Structures are given as C-alpha cells and as structure tokens.
C-alpha cells in the first residue's frame, strides 16, 4: 500500500501556502523537493563533523571522509556500477557531460561523427557542439516523430566506422518520453561507438542498472532525486575513465607535483580537483536511502497511475493539446491551450498556488519541431496526489475561461 499521506509528512515544504492557497508543486522535472531525512543529514553534517576530506588525520576529517565515501558507495550500489571508483562526484549532470565532452577532444578528428537525439536538453547538445568545433567532428541527429518518440531508422542506417560517440537522454525532460536506450547502446556498440546517457530525468523514476545497460557514461543530478542542488554523479566505465585525461587541475587530483612534471591520482580522484561539495555528496547518499526506503518500483507504479489519471482528466478540457504521447513515459505532461501563450497559463496557475514550468524547458529543438514557443509542463512526483491533479485540471480550465 502506497501511503502518500505519510510520505507527504516527510516534506516540510509541501505544507506551505502560495498566494493564499495550499502549494501544489508540479515542477518536479526541474527540481524535486527535499524530505526531512535529507535536511537532517545536512544539518547533522554542519552541526557535528564539517571538515575537509581525504587530507586530515583528525577525527572530524576522517568522519567526513568516511561519510562522503559511503555516499559514493550508495550511488554505486543504487545504479549497480561495478566499482565505487567508477562514480565521479560532480556538481550535476551538466558538469558530468562537460567533463566527458572535454575529455574526448584528443580522441576525435575531422570526419568523425557523433550523434545526439532530437529531444535533448541543451546541456546534452551544447557541450558536443563545442567538441565538434574543437575537433572538426560532425554532429548528426536521431530524429523524432509527433508522438515524441525517437525514430531509430536514420540512426541505424547512418552508423558507420566514422561513428565515435552517441549522446542520448534516458528520459526527455520536455516530453517525459522514455527512450529505447538499450537498443541505442547496442547499435552504437556494434559500430564501435561509445554512449553517454543523460539520466537526469530518468533517475527519479527508473533505476538504471548500469552493468546490465552497458552504457559507457551515465549522468545524474541529486537535486532531481530529493537531494540538494550543486551535486551529482557521473558514472564512467573504468576502461574509459582510465583513458580520459583529467578535466580540471588542482588539489586532490594529483599523485605528485613538481614544477617539471605532475602525475595524476588514480580513479576517481583524477576527476575530482579541489574541495568537493562534501555535505551535498553525503546528502545525496541520504536521498538515495530515502528513495530506496519507499522503493523505486513502488514509486514508478504510483506515478504511472497518477500520470494516467491526470492525462485523462486534462484531455477533457477543450482546446488542450498534449505534446509527447509516447507509449513509454514518465509522469511529465507538456501541454498548451489553443491560442493561449503558455506563460499566461503558468501565471494564472501560480496565482492559484500551482507550480508548473512554462517555456522551452531547455529543449528548444523540441519546441521548434512542434512549431511552438514553449509549453506548460506539469511534472508529477511520488508525493503528489490525485487531489492535486484535480486542482491542476480545475485551474487550467479556469485559465482557459479567463484567457480565451
Ligand atoms: C535537468 C536536466 C539536465 C541538467 O541538469 P543540471 O542539474 O541542471 O545539470 C540535463 N538533462 C536533462 C534531461 C535534465 O532533465
């Protein structure tokens, strides 16, 4: 039995009011809310054992190092990576992608090809465009259809011995589509190419098994997983991480420094220059503990039911069009009201205490594909309820009547 009332009690923010109405938080695809258990981990760190890690012999430093490395192991176990040193702590998905894109500079040359999907977040497009500019490699695009699903035929036919890298999100943040990454990875590997999966939007809903998936790289952000902002993880296969050069130079990432030559530390420290977000990393571990306490399977089942319920009821509103109706979706509904700008809908919803996202959702190519400036995006989490979905539907109907 999924006890959503009990779960909601874990999230202090959910009991606040916005514009005199109880908050309905439906912007989970942008960032998730934080349970007391994670807030407590943050308070505990700063109250009891705040210290720099990996350096001090003193007790606080050792406690902080232990907790931080414990968090790395929690991330490894959660995603079933083979080794803890395959988990690089980052500031988030964007950092992880840039680390890999920068690292590949020396491995690509003129004429090489890299593929990206038509429904990527800007953070999984721009770093690769920059890589192509540096190296002369060519960026190719896996197209999508009106349902918001990737069309793999072009990709299948376009793969060749020139193909070096493929970047694709596991779940689209703009549409909620779950992409067939298993198939993409297997096709890419057959062509000898490496694959980076942007897992930022998938991780809150689907637990990727990294060994089964066989992705070469996988990136996540803690703040979409009930953790704090400014921390995330990059998974890389050991063989790739050994090959890639360091991203940044500094303390912590070296073995020995002289003015003649510096040798780098082993994994994962080679990629972790400077003092990391220690508290954030520990809180990320606490967030995974929290999610696993509920169970990712139970979360996915509950959210699927909520998605079906909200979709069905939103569709009763005249002139409402949903963008992205893929067969496999997470709990994201992107929509517009005919003839009404998404920003105006979002503004009225906020007056009614409902937080949604409006705009291009950092995925302008998706909006261009549909020929629209943006959408209203309601994204549900496991702490949302049917009553909140009802309030959304009533508020959208009210907005339609006011703006039509
Ligand atoms: C949120 C998101 C990102 C960016 O994550 P940051 O935490 O801002 O680095 C990238 N890709 C997808 C699919 C996302 O949903």
From TrEMBL:
Keywords: Lyase, Pyridoxal phosphate, Transferase. It catalyses: (sulfur carrier)-H + L-cysteine = (sulfur carrier)-SH + L-alanine. Its cofactor is pyridoxal 5'-phosphate. CDD domains: SufS_like. Residues 24-392 form the Aminotransferase class V domain. It comes from the Bacteria. The keyword Lyase applies. The keyword Transferase applies. GO terms for molecular function: cysteine desulfurase activity; lyase activity; pyridoxal phosphate binding. Coiled coil: none annotated. GO terms for biological process: cysteine metabolic process. Its EC number is 2.8.1.7. It is an enzyme of class 2 (transferase). Belongs to the class-V pyridoxal-phosphate-dependent aminotransferase family. Csd subfamily. Catalyzes the removal of elemental sulfur and selenium atoms from L-cysteine, L-cystine, L-selenocysteine, and L-selenocystine to produce L-alanine. This is Probable cysteine desulfurase. It comes from Robiginitalea biformata (strain ATCC BAA-864 / DSM 15991 / KCTC 12146 / HTCC2501). The lineage of its organism: Bacteria, Pseudomonadati, Bacteroidota, Flavobacteriia, Flavobacteriales.
